[in-house]
Design goal:
about 120 residues, mainly beta, 7-stranded mixed sheet, 4-stranded antiparallel sheet, about 0% helix, globular
């Protein structure tokens, strides 16, 4: 059974930082693209960042570009999202997702596996 488990969420003041982790089990994602999405109350799930299987190609939503960094540790089968200069509008549940192919993608429907999410709350 494939599982993606996010951790690292919490409450932080505006301008602060958090590092999210996503531990994968049941399947190796070494050759798969992965991504982070988020969903705020009343909103649709939106793309945050994606990383290709090689780890050398990344893409970000304009709203987080320059502040967030996606990375992966293949040896640990773990995905990360470093979030700096956090803003109240970053408040959402953050989800880790994995594909069965190696190419990066921005659409949630292009992902095959999903975690349960971790709450990130940024206070003003």
């Amino acid at each position: 059974q494939v599982r993606l488990v996010e951790s690292g969420g919490g409450l932080v003041q505006a301008g602060g930082s958090l590092r999210l982790s996503c531990a994968a089990s049941g399947r190796t994602f070494s050759y798969s693209a992965m991504g982070w999405f988020r969903q705020a109350p009343g909103n649709e799930r939106e793309f945050v960042a994606t990383i290709a299987w090689s780890g050398t190609v990344t893409r970000y939503a304009d709203s987080v570009k320059g502040r967030f960094t996606i990375s992966r540790d293949i040896t640990r089968n773990t995905l990360y999202l470093q979030m700096n200069s956090l803003k109240p509008e970053d408040t959402a549940v953050y989800y880790c997702a994995g594909r069965t192919t190696g190419a990066w993608a921005m659409g949630p429907r292009e992902y095959d596996y999903w975690g349960q999410g971790t709450q990130v709350t940024v206070s003003a």
